[in-house]
Amino acid sequence: MTELEGQLTEALKRLSGQSETERRRQSEQVEALRRQVERQTEENATLRRRIERLDERVTGLTEYYETSGVARPRGRGW
User: Fold this and answer.
1) Which of 34, 43, 68, 70 has its CA 20 to 30 A from that of 26?
2) Alpha-carbon torsion 7, 10, 12, 18, what sign?
3) What SS3 class is residue 46?
């Protein structure tokens, strides 16, 4: 093997190693993002359920005040 071939071979080995390192780094980033999206999806579902429960409570209170003779509280956006 000539000196130039040896240099090219070494350069190719370095580039291959750098490429593999970069590929692993990107794979780790993708996995971290996937986990983050999964957590946020779960948090969103939890918040959605809480909002639904609150909406049901507000609807129930609204119906109660509309159908009962109870005076509405003042200064609360009613």
Assistant:
1) 43
2) negative
3) helix
What's the pTM value of the predicted model, to 2 decimals? Answer: 0.60
Q: What is the pLDDT of residues 23-67, one digit of tens each?
A: 999 999 999 999 999 999 999 999 999 999 999 999 999 999 888
Tokens of 39: 């957590």
- Token pair recorded at residue 56: 């049901």
Which single residue is written with the structure tokens 């609360």?
A: 76
Backbone angles phi, psi at 46, to 5 degrees: -60, -45
Instruction: Please give the Cα distance from 34 to 26 (Å, whole number).
Output: 12
**C-alpha to C-alpha distance for 71 and 78, rounded to whole angstroms:** 11
Q: What is the DSSP letter of 71?
A: P
Query: Both tokens of residue 44?
Result: 């969103």
53: its two tokens:
């429960």
